[in-house]
Structures are given as C-alpha cells and as structure tokens.
Amino acid sequence: MRRYELMLVLRPDAPDERAAALIDRTTRYVVSAGGQIIKVAPWGRRRLAYPIDRYRDGSYHIVVFESPAEAIAELEHSLQITEDVLRSLVTRAVRPVKARRDAAGSADIDDLESVLPPSDDEDDMDTVERIDESESEAAPAAID
C-alpha cells in the first residue's frame, strides 16, 4: 500500500454537518477499500487564489491515508461528482528516506546516492556553450 494525501476544498456555505459527513464518507471508503487513515486535518476557511463557481473562499481539509492504488480512481471520481466539493487533489505522499548508520555513526553513502538525482559530470559542463551578456540579443536595459 502507498501513502496518499487528499486535499479537499469544500464550499464555504456548506453546513459543518455536511462537511463532516463528506469527510466521514471519504474515510469510510478508504477503509472499506483496504486502506487505513493516518491523519485528518481541517485547515479551516481560506481565501481561494481565483473564484471557483463564484466562491472566493473555501473550506480546506487534508486527509493522509494509505491505500491500494486501485482504489484511488474511484475515490477521485466520487469526489468529482459531489456538489459540496469545489476541488480535490490526491497525491502520493513522499516519505523521507532515513540513511542507515553504522556503529561509528556515519551514514551509508550508497543509500544516499540511490535517492539523490544523478549529478551532471564536470566533463559534460565543458561541452555546454555559454552565452556572455555582451552576446545577448536582449536590450541593454534588460541586462542591467
């Protein structure tokens, strides 16, 4: 099972009972699909970046859960057709990697290198063509 985060933006005029019922229905679905709820955090009412269905505010809720990947599509579909949900987003949560330490207390470098993205070799940097500011086609005022 993988860990997911669900962010819900609910209509601000929805009664608290309906919002609680929606969160409860969502958590019951995750549990019935074989998952488990890690955390439910209401963030409260916040201003939206842009109007959604003529609403300028939304009630935000975060649900962190573990679930089989097959259950996510149906969860997203059920949230899309719910009237009180303005927006919803399910993302895979990234767990921090803990480096193994030996008896001396130093981290195992092989573990860290497997997690980090590959770095560019310095030899490759020599082949990259660099443009000097004097060669730029931009207006002189844009360079300053």
Provide a concise account of the structure shown.
The chain has 144 residues and is of the alpha+beta class. Helix content is 31%, strand content 33%. The chain has a domain at 2-92: Ribosomal protein S6/Translation elongation factor EF1B (Alpha-Beta Plaits), CATH 3.30.70.
Keywords:
144 residues; alpha+beta; Alpha-Beta Plaits; 4 strands
Give an account of the 3D structure.
Strands 2-3-1-4 form a four-stranded antiparallel sheet, with helices on one face. The model has no long low-confidence stretch (mean pLDDT about 80). It is about 30% helix and about 35% strand. It has a domain at about 1-90: 2-Layer Sandwich (Alpha-Beta Plaits), CATH 3.30.70. With about 140 residues, the chain is an alpha+beta fold. It contains five helices and four strands; from the N terminus they run E-H-E-E-H-E-H-H-H. It is globular, with a radius of gyration of 24 Å. It starts with a strand and ends with a helix.
Q: Biggest β-sheet: count, sense, barrel? A: 4 strands, antiparallel
Shape: globular
Number of helices: 5
Number of strands: 4
Helical/strand content category: alpha+beta
Low-pLDDT runs: none
Q: Strand sequence of the main sheet, in spatial order?
A: 2-3-1-4
Instruction: Report the radius of gyration as a whole number of Å.
Output: 24 Å
* End-to-end gap: 53 Å
CATH superfamily of the domain at 2-92: Ribosomal protein S6/Translation elongation factor EF1B
Report the CATH topology name of the domain at 2-92.
Alpha-Beta Plaits
Supply the CATH class of the domain at 2-92: Alpha Beta
Question: What is the typical, i.e. mean, pLDDT?
Answer: 80
CATH architecture of the domain at 2-92: 2-Layer Sandwich
Helix content: 25-40%
Give the SSE string: EHEEHEHHH
The proportion of strand residues reads: 25-35%
